Amino acid sequence: MDRGGNPWSERDRYRKRDERYRNRGRHNGRRGHWRARGDHGEERNTSRESHGRDGSRSLTETDARHPGYDASLYPDPEPIAELQAVAVRPEFNLAPEFNQVSLGNEDKICPIRRPDKGGSLLARHVGLHVNHFRITFNPETIIRHYNIEIKPEAPAKHHHPVRLSKSTPGQIKEKLFSDNRTQFPLSMTTYDGEKNIFSVIPLPCGTYNVKMFSGEDSEDSSFQCTIELVNEFNLLKLKDYLVGNLLSIPRDILQGMDLVMKENPKRHMISVGRHFYPLEHQETDDLKCGVAAFRGFQHSLKPTSQGLTLSLDCSAMAFRKKMPVIDFLEENIRGFSMGQFAKYRRKVEQALKGVKVTVTHRNTKQKYTIVRLTDKMTSSISFNDESSEGKMNKINLVNYFWEKYKIEIRYRDIPCLDISKNNKKQYVPMELCVLVEGQRYPKENLERDASTWLKNLSMPAPHIRKESICHMMRSNTGPCGDVSRNFGMDVDMNMTKVGGRVLEPPELKLAAPNGKAIKIEVDKDKCHWNLMGKCVMDGKPIERWGIVDFSASDQNRLNYEPFIQKLIRKCRSLGIQMEEPLFYQDAAMSMLSNVVRLTELLEAVNDSACRVKRGRPQFILCVMSRRDIGYKNLKWICETRVGLVTQCCLSMRANKANDQYLTYLALKINAKLGGSNVELFNPFPHINDEGHVMFLGADVNHPASRDMISPSFAAVVGTINWPAANRYAARVQPQLHRQEKIVNIGEMCLELVEIYARLNRVRPRKLVLFRDGVSESQFNMVLNEELQDLKKAFAEKDYKPTITIIVGAKAPPNSHYGGIGTSKPTHYHVLWDEHRFSSDHLQKLIYNLCFTIARCTKPVSLVPPVYYADLAAYRGRLYHEAAMEHSPNSMASSFSSKASTSFSLVGSNEERFYKLHADVENMMFFI
Length: 927
Prior knowledge:
Layout: H1 10-27, E1 124-130, E2 132-137, E3 142-152, H2 168-179, E4 189-191, E5 196-199, E6 206-212, E7 221-234, H3 236-243, H4 251-268, E8 270-272, E9 275-277, E10 291-304, E11 307-320, H5 325-332, H6 341-352, E12 356-359, E13 368-369, E14 372-377, E15 382-386, E16 392-396, H7 397-405, E17 415-418, E18 427-428, E19 433-435, E20 439-440, H8 448-458, H9 462-474, H10 482-486, E21 489-491, E22 496-502, E23 508-511, E24 517-520, E25 545-549, H11 560-573, E26 583-586, H12 595-613, E27 619-624, H13 631-642, E28 646-650, H14 651-656, H15 659-672, E29 679-680, E30 693-701, E31 712-719, E32 728-735, H16 745-760, E33 766-772, H17 779-796, E34 802-810, E35 826-833, H18 839-849, H19 864-886, H20 888-895
Parallel strand pairs: 25-26, 25-27, 27-28, 30-33, 33-34
Antiparallel strand pairs: 1-22, 2-11, 2-21, 3-5, 3-7, 4-5, 6-7, 8-9, 9-10, 10-11, 11-20, 12-13, 12-19, 14-17, 15-16, 17-18, 23-24, 23-29, 30-31, 31-32, 34-35
Helix pairs in contact: 11-15, 12-13, 13-19, 16-17, 19-20
């Protein structure tokens, strides 16, 4: 209430609160002590998109309305929306070094705001259609947030609690609402599948009993559902934020509205993470191996300066088809036949383990997970069955199905499927099982033709992608439906038009055949450069190297002599003086899966090379006949135990030895050995005035969603040369399962700084850190935990560099040139800046850095420090997988305990599994 005893409205409460904080900042004479509207660049991105690394992202563009903007190029009076590729004018002007202190906590710092109105550099203007759809809503709408708690009751017979599967809460909630449609109208509510319900009308709170029918031969389950009101949100608060009257983003409201827009597809489609896919695939998308490609989409809400928008993008994913298990095996396993089951048993078990099925002999929707195949054949399986008189009799499984279901089992000389659960044995003949729809199929298991088809579906041309997105928006199963309309939300079905700027590519530096540096210009349309008649900037002489040919015993083995001579000629033509190999060692692909034998082989070739040339080999060329899971063993042994740099290649590609592939190998080898392939001709903007600069990249690789115990792996990479800034060293470490915060980022960065100082005899005065893998909600963690750890580690060594921290996040629109499909740019959030970058400086710096990539002759669409940090973190994952297979008991004991809150990396008994060998730790082994 106010001082007069009158009740305050919700709008009055938050406006009074914000006014107090604004006044506090004025009275104290301090600047920037309240949270700015939006993040550092005034773009308000409510959720981070899924982060696949396919090289298809690109640099975020900014507002076309800069000084020198030509209005005649954009005659339409439509407002320019603040989208991923567009910058907007900031509301306040603060010096770049001032970071806001968050409301209610003077010790917390918040992301810096953009210091200007956006960039102005350009080569030319472009008009863009962005996959953002404007949303209008009724600001008087009130959304109510409820908490639902579901507790299972003990079954009458077994007297133990029922464990809830991931889908069970949703089924229970649907049953409760369906049985009480008047009190709980489905079209007025949305549910996140866990604990949160949002409703546009009041719901009756209390505890309700829900009984779930389990089908034949199973007992019904009873549950208690307790619903309580958590909060009420007035959409007027969101409107005030969008027009600038409210300073802090109302995340709770956006969470509810985002769920509202997901409710319609959730009810009609298959949900996989943030993606939705139809129940049936198109006939043309059958991949012919028991698998089909399904075309779906993902979407989320984005607050922008021009209002709320819905961002939707299409996607494609491989799923197992809903079909009988035996039919799936006949399609999925080449050559399979039921008459030769024993021959294919191992492949059958690999194809079916962990797959969900339903059964056809009972009236039930229950899903079962295949654990394994039974040891005995179907005809030999017997079990104890309780008769109607209560007596236990032993009965043969084949006879059981005939007597109870009148089903004659046809395939009796093959195993059954073991679908046992909770110590309850259950065996079912394969012919009575059907694969459940919506089960992802690993794309790495697809055959080449199927993989190519899926890839083409995933990367459509821009005009095709636009048509697909608009079709999905208008679909009856799309985001727009009765629920969103009942919440007062209306979506414009037309894409947003924005103006974009194309940046001028930088001039590059290569070497002439005589070694003299020359300036080259990049193709302005396709942004690539040609090495024909040119050399790399610094080619490292290769005097000691050898070949281990794992394809030697395979049919498509390496054609040794022609390939080696072509590779040597290519390297020499690029200014890399490569000598003949010291040795050729043949081996078998099977050796890659045997860690002991593989270690002995690699140590032997290393020792042999040392005796011949009195020095370790500079690198080993490892030839494989196919992609193999033993690759991780090879990298783990070489990079943590033996200390060898390796370059792998496939024998089929090596035998073709086209010029592009040979160039690719030569560039990677030279970079791994410390060479420099390409450099910028002109200095980096803004930071090149005095002192050395170091670019850092940091990322965390997390285990797969089904993996509940494996550690996450953090990686930090840093440049070790200046001013070229194109050679990197990396550090990798394990940390707690799915922990995003990099625990020892200060120590890792300091170690890289000391390496830099050892090589250059001076510490870098300026650091620019690019952080990947964090969402907007984790910016606080980066600033108030990781940054503080960084400064603390530096202070202990009396090291005080200036620091800029930039987060790279995936974004939907298209602005960076892509060779295939429609590019997805990267949006860079500046969280902390002690270098006073302008928008133009930072955009040019990031864009130019993308041309310093070592692996190819075109720029990447993700800044190299982040690109390399991702590769290095993934390398840690490979080390772990290899170590688990080699010493699973030791490894599992270290990481299986989730209760361990004092996981120490320094001095850990398992550090030996991941610590890089001294001979490779400062080289670019990870590219």
